[in-house]
Design brief:
Helices cover about 35% and strands about 15% of the residues. Among the domains are: about 90 residues, no CATH class; about 110 residues, no CATH class; about 90 residues, no CATH class. The strands form four sheets. A seven-stranded mixed sheet has the order 8-7-13-14-15-12-16. The protein has a five-stranded parallel sheet with strand order 10-2-1-11-17, covered by helices on one side. The protein is built from 17 helices and 17 strands. A hairpin with an 8-residue loop joins strand 13 and strand 14. The longest helix has 26 residues. The chain has about 475 residues and is of the alpha/beta class. The structure holds flavin-adenine dinucleotide. Flavin-adenine dinucleotide binds next to helix 5, strand 2, helix 12, helix 16 and helix 17.
Length: about 475
Amino acid sequence: MSKPAERRKFSWARQRSSGVAERLLANRILSSSLRPRTLRNLLNRAASFFSPLYCTPPATHLKPSQGSNAPLTKAPFFCILSFPTPHPEPHTLNPEFDILIVGAGFAGAVLAERLASRLDRRCTVIDRRDHVGGNAFDRRDGAGVLIHPYGPHYFRTNSSRIVEYLSRFTDWHPVEYRVLSYAGGRHWQFPINLNTFEQLLGRPSTPEEMEATLAQWRAPIENPKNSEEVILSKVGPRLYEMFFKNYTRKQWRRDPKDLDPSVCARIPIRTNRDDRYLSEKFQALPKDGYAAMFRRMLDHPNIDLRLGVDFRDIRNTAKWKHLVYTGPLDEYFGHRFGPLPYRTLHFELETLPREFSQPAVQVNYPGDEPFTRVVEIKHATGQKIPVTTIVREYPDDYGPGKEPYYPIPAPDARALHARYAALAAREPGTSFVGRLATYRYHNMDQTVAMALAEFGRLRATWLTPGLSSRPSPGHPEKREWPA
Ligand SMILES: Cc1cc2nc3c(=O)[nH]c(=O)nc-3n(C[C@H](O)[C@H](O)[C@H](O)COP(=O)(O)OP(=O)(O)OC[C@H]3O[C@@H](n4cnc5c(N)ncnc54)[C@H](O)[C@@H]3O)c2cc1C
């Protein structure tokens, strides 16, 4: 066995041996000639046999608040190997692991998987939640319905490279997401297409007629500077008032006039009968759900997953050679310029004793209702179950104790972000990746692409001598931390 492999085997066994029996077992390991990975597999098998008897509960059985305080029951040596446990003593993070990854969402998981499997780097992945997957996490609720607890996550992409990469960890359930808008007491096809136009007219029509009518309705705005101007320039005031104005106000608590054009420009307007909500070539959900896909991504001997661990609790004690940070950027720098503005969401779940409750996976509510949309994700997951769960989504102001969901796409927020981004660019040995760390709304495929790009950059830097664009910080205690 090579020297580094032997050293790794030693420290791996020593760290996990606390009692006499464990130490004896560790000594046997140290004197064995098996490769560490083989040993680890053997012991994990033993662990899965014994774990129901001895282990701390898997982290997924704990509430987030229990995460950092939950006692780590003394367990046999081999049991400790099997589960990612919430860790009460952050300083016991494995010092042999050289990359610390904050966040087990798409950004963190992709980087952990690539660094572990392609560069043989040992990564500790922490997340302050008690599950993997970040906002894309899914789970079964009390009635057994598979739900998306952080809002519906419709996977779609035009990139065959992203599909190919994620397909290593999941099969797919193809789906076409269909959305309706409920206004004036009835459901309308949405996004606006020829069918919507026919609903408005109350008779059959053609793409030519729709095009000609929209040409009359459109406001003559050549370069729209905000979201109101974008929609007025595409469909005119009638359809803007009907589908966009109030919905956007509820969502952002800002007038569309005060939001970037990109907010409303995302929604297509079609003069054909394509009534799909999204236009990307590939639209599907992971066949066994997102959580299963993430677990497979992170299931690697070089990855040490610790759930229920907040970076803020360990940053002054843990050590790392490189940090991948996917949490909120302002939080990383101690909010020194003030908090970055976000919108948050509050979800109200209702389980109903029938197969389906509404005619589409998503119904938008652009009227005076306090919620913006109702989602019945069962339409998309294809789950066969005689009950259903709908989720009403209420936008809300962000503040302490709430989840930061949507960065505000407006000039004032962008200016504040630019100040934090300048600090991030100067931070040595740290990769800021993902939607919170870059303060940008990214779809899942864009987040995967960003993480893969950062992996490429790190690989080039580390494997090419003299190309170190960001020097390793050494130990965190030697650095100046923000107040
Ligand atoms: C309501 C909503 C709906 C969406 N719907 C879609 C959709 O339909 N399709 C689509 O493609 N995209 C969708 N997205 C975007 C998608 O959620 C993101 O692209 C993706 O989740 C980004 O992954 P991430 O890893 O950057 O962030 P996240 O998924 O947010 O993961 C970051 C992780 O870091 C952890 N973390 C943060 N700070 C700390 C800390 N201090 N210590 C430890 N852990 C920490 C968090 O707990 C979190 O788990 C949606 C987003 C939202 C908000």
